[in-house]
Specification:
The complex is a heterodimer of chains A (about 120) and B (about 120). By secondary structure, chain A is mainly beta. Chain A contains no helices and eleven strands. In chain A, a hairpin with a 2-residue loop joins strand 7 and strand 8. Chain A is globular and about 40 Å long. In chain A, about 35% of the residues are buried. Chain B has about 120 residues and is mainly beta. In chain B, the strands form three sheets. In chain B, strands 2, 5, 6, 10, 11 and 12 form a six-stranded mixed sheet that branches. A four-stranded antiparallel sheet of chain B has the order 3-9-8-7, with no helix packed on it. The chains are: A mainly beta (about 120), B mainly beta (about 120). At the A-B interface, strand 5, strand 9 and strand 10 of A face strand 11 of B.
């Protein structure tokens, strides 16, 4: 079945570093991808909706300049956490859905665990 | 606004017991979709079921069953004869009716299920 690949699975880096997370749909064209954030033992909160070829739509309270999203192709969306700080440490997970009027449920990546020292 | 409530934060049962995870939702949409996901310790989200608001038939899949009661806005999940491998966090989620529910998801806070051997 459809697979969404997320890379890297784990990142540990120093404060001030920018970190890029990739979300790829491996066997289908994803016109829309969603980025979620999950704090430890908490629920998943939608950060933004990423549409191929256009600007992402951010949820209220999510800083656009902090979390840069690029969806340059139908199979790839990237989330860049700029100048990351310890409070950005979290589990980030993407999901992707196919184009058109697809009956297939959206598929989730395996997530990226980001730890900022 | 959409809201999903999972009142049970943590549940522990002894292996082979049955367990029901509760989910109550709120939405103004007349058409919507409900989901259950399993999140094992490794972090990935495992899709379990999607149900649209027009289909109130209960569903059974092996040891899993779901009870959708539109009158009480509930979509409960029962695991029969629980096994240690069922230990995970389970999320109930809600999406608007557009595109078979393949839009942004509103997640509940999750129920951490521990099966004691």
């Amino acid at each position: 079945g459809a697979v969404v690949s997320q890379h890297p699975s784990r990142v540990i880096c120093k404060s001030g570093t920018s970190v890029k997370i990739e979300c790829r749909s491996l066997d289908f064209q994803a016109t829309t991808m969603f980025w979620y954030r999950q704090f430890p033992k908490k629920s998943l909160m939608l950060m933004a909706t990423s549409n191929e070829g256009s600007k992402a739509t951010y949820e209220q309270g999510v800083e656009k300049d902090k979390f840069l999203i690029n969806h340059a192709s139908l199979t790839l969306s990237t989330l860049t956490v700029t100048s990351a700080h310890p409070e950005d440490s979290s589990f980030y997970i993407c999901s992707a859905k196919g184009g058109g009027y697809s009956n297939q449920p959206q598929h989730f990546g395996d997530g990226t665990r980001l730890s900022i020292l | 606004a959409q809201k999903v409530t999972q009142a049970q934060t943590e549940i522990s049962v002894v292996e082979k017991e049955d367990v029901t995870l509760d989910c109550v939702y709120e939405t103004r949409d007349t058409t919507y979709y409900l989901f259950w996901y399993k999140q094992p310790p490794s972090g990935e989200l495992v899709f379990l079921i999607r149900r649209n608001s027009f289909d109130e038939q209960n569903e059974i899949s092996g040891r899993y069953s779901w009870n959708f009661q539109k009158s009480t806005s509930s979509f409960n999940f029962t695991i029969t004869a629980s096994q240690v491998v069922d230990s995970a966090v389970y999320f109930c989620a809600l999406s608007g009716g557009a595109n078979f529910g393949n839009e942004k998801l509103t997640f509940g806070t999750g129920t951490r299920l521990t099966i004691i051997p």
